[in-house]
């Protein structure tokens, strides 16, 4: 069975609604990516060095990390030789196959699931640099978990940015969820401590903690974050159950540096990729998974409450190559 | 981290060449390949890179590189010249309308830092040009965006015009300008809503605001960490609104900021300011030549030299050196020196500007804790004149008093005294060995 067919079967077994969300959200990404690959395939009949060079550029333009692209191209060249592929048309399938392979690297889809404590309080800590959409993501995630029937509580740990607490409260109101807060400028660890106590006494299922955005090269701020994490683990065994790094899909190579440094400070367990509904490709998540082994758990596909979707690498690649897949089956 | 500067990248190739005595076209090809990767890793758009490499190759093969003694350095030089050319000259002027108020419109994607930059720009206008700006909250969509601007306004003690989230942004902008005229404000800075740039609704809205208020400047605020997409962002905003300049934010991060080059290349519009931190006074004029160095990963040598030049008073430096020599260096001098270094800006910034600083072992994770320096300062300030000049008089009860006065503990005072003594010893060794060799002036060991 061809790879495209497998991918297609896989996706059609899921609800159409989710697939459409993904498809719509990534329309821009897919359009430009597919057009480019198709264009490339049309122009080069033969698979040669120049073909690979252009392919390399297409991948780089999707912000897939330089190193990952180099590895990918190398593997592709090998594969093409091994299978003795001459026609560029055939390469298309190998490309997407390799992309998914790079992403999973032997693991299965369970890496994408949110890891929650089934019988007791789960704590989710969100971290990230400034302006990636942490607070918005928390609002959407809280809404999502509430829809699943969980009781959710938010802790307004961003005590630094002007208006951050208000912003979280607006999201809390929209979702009908309480927010534990202190005043601006107070100690974030104290807010989160209070959040944990409140969640415990109310018997909440999930506590989501907001933190102030910080650039990863500010070591003092990173230490502050490590402290917040320590407070959480001290209060509840095995917490935080998830530490989510929120990443802006428009970010380039710096995302790797972000992932690495935040992982060192807070042992990041997953990524939320936001703003994927622009023309941004978010290809850097492939590099992050490849080089740092952190899976993506959610993607933000729009500005509405419902626009946070669980990540699925198959869907992601489908988003990139969706239109490519239709063609071969038509023949 | 994963980022290697161009200089490091070229090391291998250069080694090969220096052994050969003759540089072949193949070598140039290899070198430009490294240049290409370095630029791509810095997030410069691949199309921009392609054009650049083409030009560099032409220049390089056309002898310039081949004749030099150190071809590697020459390649870097050629690359840097090309980059600097592309970046254009320095331009941080802000328009002044013939009839006040001057209207500035801030536009950009979500999370780029528009609201913060609005506050910073207002602060800049007041501090540098003694202007009297008014801020306008026209972002009615993002929860608490108006709140955020109002808080900034309070911090700056500046008026913020807002009409809540129900009003139409175009009306808000128009009314704001009327009010600014009445109150004799000379600048109006409009903070608009950020969205994803493909959003036509937003673009229409921005367009309508532009039509209604006819701004003198439209600044596009861009996150310096933006990847390949920076080109699309800049292009679509420029096409729709004909922006007049760019503000690059979050440059205090460790991004190489190739986006700057891409934006400049596709729009031709100048990058005017750079956001260098979270505080409201951390907005700086943008230096294209330094950005070129940064993209290449060569460290911001120029910035550092300039900072050192303006802040360190030559005469004082000489006096200080003399004192170090004859061991008459006191806490008084120590305090003064600390202040000089501090005037150069946050210590982290200084460290990160030194080329190779992040390559040095131990240096990378060394954190200069500003708080600790505050403590040291407080301790010294709690000493009497006599104690500062002759620390040997400090006995247990004096230590207690100093600790109380500075809000620290006796052990902290002890530690400082010990460190100070060790420093003096070290100075003696350093100065003793090199006496007479160095000519005045303050020499940084890394330069």
Automatic annotation (TrEMBL), chain A:
EC number(s) recorded for this UniProt protein = 3.6.5.4
| Alphabetized CDD domains for the sequence | FtsY
- GO molecular function terms here? GTP binding; GTPase activity; signal recognition particle binding
Q: Which SUPFAM superfamilies match?
A: Domain of the SRP/SRP receptor G-proteins, P-loop containing nucleoside triphosphate hydrolases
- Keywords in alphabetical order, please: Cell membrane, Cytoplasm, GTP-binding, Hydrolase, Membrane, Nucleotide-binding, Receptor
Classification via InterPro entries: AAA+_ATPase, P-loop_NTPase, Signal_recog_particl_SRP54_hlx, SR_rcpt_FtsY, SRP/SRP_N, SRP54_GTPase_dom, SRP54_N_sf
Q: Which Gene3D superfamilies match?
A: P-loop containing nucleotide triphosphate hydrolases, Signal recognition particle SRP54, nucleotide-binding domain
For this protein, the record's SMART domains field holds: AAA (SM00382), SRP54 (SM00962), SRP54_N (SM00963)
Q: Where in the cell is it found?
A: Cell membrane; Cytoplasm
Q: What are the recorded Gene Ontology BP terms? A: SRP-dependent cotranslational protein targeting to membrane
Topology relative to the membrane, per the entry?
Peripheral membrane protein
- Spell out the Pfam families in the cross-references: SRP54, SRP54_N
In the record, the note on similarity to other proteins reads: Belongs to the GTP-binding SRP family. FtsY subfamily.
Q: Which NCBIfam families does UniProt cross-reference here?
A: ftsY
Q: Could you describe the subunit structure of this protein?
A: Part of the signal recognition particle protein translocation system, which is composed of SRP and FtsY.
Q: What is this protein called?
A: Signal recognition particle receptor FtsY
**Organism of provenance:** Piscibacillus halophilus
Automatic annotation (TrEMBL), chain B:
| Localization annotation | Cytoplasm
Q: Which GO terms describe its cellular component?
A: signal recognition particle
EC top class, as a word: hydrolase
The answer, when asked if Transport is one of the entry's keywords, is no
InterPro entries, A to Z: AAA+_ATPase, P-loop_NTPase, Signal_recog_part_SRP54_M_sf, Signal_recog_particl_SRP54_hlx, Signal_recog_particle_SRP54_M, SRP, SRP54, SRP54_GTPase_dom
Per the UniProt entry, the Enzyme Commission number(s) are 3.6.5.4
Name any one Pfam family assigned in the record: SRP54
Any one GO MF term held by the record is:
GTP binding
Cite the binding residues for GTP: 108-115, 191-195, 249-252
- Which CDD domains does UniProt cross-reference here? SRP_G
Q: GO biological process: what's one of them?
A: SRP-dependent cotranslational protein targeting to membrane
Give residue ranges for domain SRP54-type proteins GTP-binding: 270-283
Q: Which UniProt keywords apply?
A: Cytoplasm, GTP-binding, Hydrolase, Nucleotide-binding, Ribonucleoprotein, RNA-binding, Signal recognition particle
**Could you tell me what reaction this enzyme catalyses?**
GTP + H2O = GDP + phosphate + H(+)
Q: What does this protein do?
A: Involved in targeting and insertion of nascent membrane proteins into the cytoplasmic membrane. Binds to the hydrophobic signal sequence of the ribosome-nascent chain (RNC) as it emerges from the ribosomes. The SRP-RNC complex is then targeted to the cytoplasmic membrane where it interacts with the SRP receptor FtsY.
> What quaternary structure, including any partners, is listed in this protein's UniProt entry?
Part of the signal recognition particle protein translocation system, which is composed of SRP and FtsY.
Recorded domain comment: Composed of three domains: the N-terminal N domain, which is responsible for interactions with the ribosome, the central G domain, which binds GTP, and the C-terminal M domain, which binds the RNA and the signal sequence of the RNC.
Which family does the UniProt entry place this protein in? Belongs to the GTP-binding SRP family. SRP54 subfamily.
Q: What is this protein called?
A: Signal recognition particle protein
Q: Which organism is it from?
A: Piscibacillus halophilus
User: The organism's lineage?
Assistant: Bacteria, Bacillati, Bacillota, Bacilli, Bacillales
């Amino acid at each position: 069975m061809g790879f495209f067919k497998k991918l297609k079967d896989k996706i059609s077994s899921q609800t159409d609604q989710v697939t459409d969300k993904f498809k719509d959200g990534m329309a821009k990404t897919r359009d430009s990516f597919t057009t480019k690959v198709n264009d490339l395939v049309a122009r080069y009949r033969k698979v040669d060095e120049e073909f690979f060079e252009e392919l390399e550029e297409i991948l780089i333009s999707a912000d897939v990390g330089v190193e990952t692209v180099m590895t990918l191209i190398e593997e592709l060249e090998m594969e093409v030789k091994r299978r003795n592929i001459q026609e560029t048309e055939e390469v298309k399938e190998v490309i997407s196959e390799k992309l998914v392979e790079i992403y999973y690297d032997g693991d299965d889809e369970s890496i994408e699931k949110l890891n929650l404590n089934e019988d007791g309080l789960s704590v989710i800590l969100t971290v990230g640099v400034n302006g990636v959409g942490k607070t918005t993501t928390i609002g959407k995630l809280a809404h999502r978990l509430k829809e699943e029937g969980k009781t959710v509580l938010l802790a307004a740990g961003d005590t630094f940015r002007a208006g951050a607490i208000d912003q979280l409260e607006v999201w809390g109101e929209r979702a009908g969820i309480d927010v534990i807060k202190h005043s601006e400028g107070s100690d974030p660890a104290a807010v989160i401590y209070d959040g944990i106590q409140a969640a415990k006494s109310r018997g909440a299922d999930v506590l989501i903690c907001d933190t102030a955005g910080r650039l990863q090269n500010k070591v003092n701020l990173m230490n502050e974050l490590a402290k917040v994490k320590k407070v959480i683990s001290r209060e509840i065994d095995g917490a935080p159950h998830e530490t989510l790094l929120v990443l802006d899909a428009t970010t380039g190579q710096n995302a790797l540096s972000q992932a690495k440094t935040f992982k060192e400070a807070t042992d990041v367990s997953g990524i939320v990729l936001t703003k994927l509904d622009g023309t941004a490709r978010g290809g850097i998540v492939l590099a992050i998974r490849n080089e740092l082994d952190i899976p993506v758990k959610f993607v933000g596909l729009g500005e509405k409450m419902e626009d946070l979707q669980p990540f699925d690498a198959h869907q992601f690649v489908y988003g990139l190559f969706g239109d490519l897949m239709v063609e071969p089956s038509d023949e | 981290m994963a980022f290697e500067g161009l200089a490091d990248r070229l090391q291998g190739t250069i080694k090969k060449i220096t052994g050969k005595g003759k540089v072949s076209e193949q070598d140039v090809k290899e070198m430009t390949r490294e240049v290409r990767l370095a630029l791509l890793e810095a997030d410069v758009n691949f199309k921009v890179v392609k054009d650049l490499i083409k030009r560099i190759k032409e220049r390089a093969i056309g002898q310039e590189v081949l004749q030099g003694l150190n071809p590697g350095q020459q390649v870097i030089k050629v690359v840097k010249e090309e980059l600097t050319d592309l970046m254009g000259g320095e331009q941080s002027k802000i328009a002044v309308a013939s009839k006040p108020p001057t209207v500035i419109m801030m536009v950009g994607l979500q999370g780029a830092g528009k609201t913060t930059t609005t506050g910073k720009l207002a602060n800049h206008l007041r501090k540098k040009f003694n202007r009297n700006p008014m801020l306008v909250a026209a972002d009615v969509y993002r929860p608490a965006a108006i709140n955020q601007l109002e808080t900034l306004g309070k911090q700056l003690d500046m008026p913020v015009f807002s009409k809540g989230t129900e009003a139409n942004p175009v009306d808000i902008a128009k009314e704001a300008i009327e009010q600014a005229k009445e109150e004799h404000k000379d600048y109006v800075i409009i903070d608009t809503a950020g969205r994803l740039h493909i959003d036509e609704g937003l673009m229409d809205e921005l367009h309508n605001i532009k039509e209604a208020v006819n701004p003198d400047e439209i600044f596009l605020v861009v996150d310096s960490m933006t990847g390949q997409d920076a080109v699309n962002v800049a292009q679509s905003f420029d096409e729709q609104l004909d922006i007049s300049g760019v503000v690059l934010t979050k440059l205090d991060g460790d991004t190489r900021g190739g986006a700057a080059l891409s934006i400049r290349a596709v729009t031709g519009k100048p990058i005017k300011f750079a956001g260098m931190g979270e505080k409201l006074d951390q907005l700086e004029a943008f230096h294209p030549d330094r950005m070129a160095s940064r993209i290449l990963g060569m460290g911001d040598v120029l910035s550092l030299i300039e900072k050192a030049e303006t802040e360190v008073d030559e005469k004082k430096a000489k006096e200080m050196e003399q004192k170090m020599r004859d061991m008459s260096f006191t806490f008084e001098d120590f305090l003064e020196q600390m202040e000089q270094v501090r005037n150069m800006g946050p210590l982290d910034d200084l460290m990160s500007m030194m080329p190779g600083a992040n390559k040095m072992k131990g240096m990378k994770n060394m954190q200069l804790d500003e708080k600790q320096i505050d403590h040291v300062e407080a301790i010294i300030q709690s000493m009497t004149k006599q104690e500062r000049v002759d620390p040997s008089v400090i006995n247990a009860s004096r230590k207690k008093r100093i600790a109380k006065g500075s809000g620290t503990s006796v052990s902290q005072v002890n530690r400082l005294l010990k460190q100070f003594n060790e420093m003096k010893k070290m100075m003696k060794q350093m100065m003793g060995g090199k006496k007479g060799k160095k000519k005045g002036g303050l020499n940084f060991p890394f330069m």
